[in-house]
Design a protein that fits this description.
162 residues, mainly beta, Immunoglobulin-like, 4-stranded antiparallel β-sheet, 1 helix, 12% helix, globular, disordered N terminus
């Protein structure tokens, strides 16, 4: 009986090795364009969502742009969100990312005192938001704010940081 167990175990080893080393590959095809953003040393986040997801439903009007001058640089963006879509949009820090001129993307700091009033912006309505983004070094130049919803871009707008 011990010999049979030994043979059964010995025979199953290649199956286990092959099963554990399998890598799944996926490919996509079609006319959809995509881009890969390679994070630089400045980056603290995953790549920004593709900006080619179709028309946006949210417009931004920047009302407050500031960077802290003491300690680690933090960008504060205050803005109005106008919902031009047919559905309500959730205003949540996890939905916001900025992209710097060099392609670096940074998500909103979810531990900061981000605010959205109201939390959900109804169609045709305007909300107010303040989002904070941790920068790795001082920055001046254009910043593109990107708001996502349901896996796509709900809004984007560019502001100048001085």
């Amino acid at each position: 009986m011990n010999t049979r167990r030994f043979i059964a175990i010995f025979a199953s080893i290649p199956l286990l090795v092959l099963g554990c080393s399998h890598k799944e590959q996926t490919t996509t095809s079609g006319s959809e364009s995509s881009s890969v953003v390679v994070p630089s040393a400045e980056s603290s986040a995953a790549p920004a969502p593709s900006l080619a997801n179709g028309p946006t439903t949210a417009n931004f009007n920047f009302t407050d742009i500031a960077i802290t001058t003491s300690g680690a640089p933090v960008l504060r963006l205050g803005f109005d969100i106008k919902n031009n879509g047919k559905d309500p949009i959730l205003c949540d820090p996890t939905e916001f990312t900025i992209q710097l001129s060099d392609g670096t993307t940074i998500p909103a700091d979810t531990s900061a005192e981000n605010t959205c009033n109201p939390d959900t912006v109804d169609p045709g309505a305007t909300g107010k938001a303040v989002m904070f983004f941790d920068l790795k070094s001082a920055y001046a130049g254009p910043v593109t704010l990107i708001m996502t919803a349901n896996g796509g871009v709900a809004g984007k707008g560019t502001a100048q940081v001085h």
